[in-house]
Amino acid sequence: MARLENDLATVHAKLAREGVEIIDLGLIDSVPKAFDAGHAFRRADVDLIFLHVTTYALSATVLPVVQRAKVPVNVLNLSPAAAIDYATYNLMGDRTQMTGEGLAHCGACPVPEIANVFNRARIDFHQVTGMLHDDPECWDEVDAWIDAARCALSTSPR
After folding, report:
1. What is the pTM for the complete model shown?
2. Which of 3, 64, 141, 158 could make an S-S bridge to 34, C-beta 3.0–4.6 Å?
3. pLDDT at residue 82 tops 70
């Protein structure tokens, strides 16, 4: 859990910039939390959602968030590294730690399910795929989405 929360904190820091308010609802791991998150996003009047898939997530814990928010969605399919460091992984010796590390590298696993449920629900979304660290091309794409949202907001009546 700490590993996933650290990864979320990294994404938060990479999204943070002057003039951008981030509503970070943390890990959403149940359907009731998903409904609450969707309502929280609506109350906060968010303009864009970056959905960071940190590990395996059921579409049932994602769909209610996005349906209620009714704003553009970017699915962040970010691996913590290019590959699992199996030499270190195999030396862990603690099955709980090993499971946690394996799950931290499983963020891409649910992305097809999430894409499918969004398509079936007719929810437009975009996907950014890359690595959490040391991937400037990936983060340039995220930056472009933030810039586009800022531009759209500056030209639309509120």
Report:
1. 0.86
2. 64
3. yes
